[in-house]
Amino acid sequence: MARKVVTLYIDDTSIRLLITDGKSIKERAHSPLEPGLVEGGVVTKEEEVAARIIQLLKDRQVHTKKVNVGLSGLHSLTLVIQLPELPESMLAEAVMREASKVLPVPLEQLYLTWKAIPAATMWMSSASTASSPSNTTPKTSPAASCLLPYL
After folding, report:
1. What element of type H or E holds 141?
2. Global pTM?
3. Which residues of the chain have pLDDT under 70?
4. Could you tell me the fold of the domain covering 74-134?
5. CATH of domain 5-73+135-146
6. Which positions ≥6 away from 43 have C-beta within 8 Å?
7. Bridge-based pairing state of the strands 68-71 and 5-10
8. What angle do CA 140, 67, 100 make, to 5 degrees?
């Protein structure tokens, strides 16, 4: 059986839900948002947006701990950073240090996720990073555990 993939996309006007089996769409739904709940890709009313997400998932009987989340990309940044070849145990710290050098705001104000990219040479590593302001998704709300994006 194919793996169930649940995706939420949040923009200023709506929350969209897409459920696939990895190959085809099984279900999709959408919940409109009132003006002011999300502005310019930033969640301004966390509790209300979290309640809408929970209700949408409940209405569609979605029971999962893993949800891919997309936010309107206005406040997001994706980049590839180059690192020397490192043992896997040191890679996370190296990515964070390099990200702190190249990103324009402190890491404490961001959600940062990354994934190692296989090196094209024997002496260099790369990591693809994605970051967005930490106020673009609720982090203290009941829905927070399903809102953290993962690669």
Report:
1. none
2. 0.54
3. 1-2, 72-78, 104, 118-151
4. Dna Ligase; domain 1 (3.30.1490)
5. 3.30.420.40
6. 10, 37, 49, 135, 136, 137, 138
7. parallel
8. 60
